[in-house]
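ok so for the tutorial part 2 we go from a plain amino acid sequence to predicted structure tokens. step 1 is just haveing the sequence, like this:
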Amino acid sequence: MQESTKNVFDTLAKILLRCWIFGFVLLAIWLGAVLLMGESIHKLHGPMFGITGHELDVLFYGGMGMLKLFVFVFFFIPWLSMRLVLNKAKGDVAQKGVEMLDDLVA
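step 2 — the prediction. this is what the tokens look like for a chain of 106 residues:
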């Protein structure tokens, strides 16, 4: 793998890791808002959309689940794949270096 390709993958991996972290921060903020201001959210949005408190809780729970799934699938799994590819490429280079040293010593 060329050095420029490794740099691109490394940069993309850093971006994906940050997006994964920001996604879970957003999830934590959403959960905090629902736990701390649940009643006022129900009073505001329930009559606005004509839904009960239970239905609103189900929507929030489903939305948080979908956000967690999307963040995991679109940010964490690609980040992990890139890190594995970069580590394998780094290992291949290290192995070639060891083989070259063995040839020089022999």
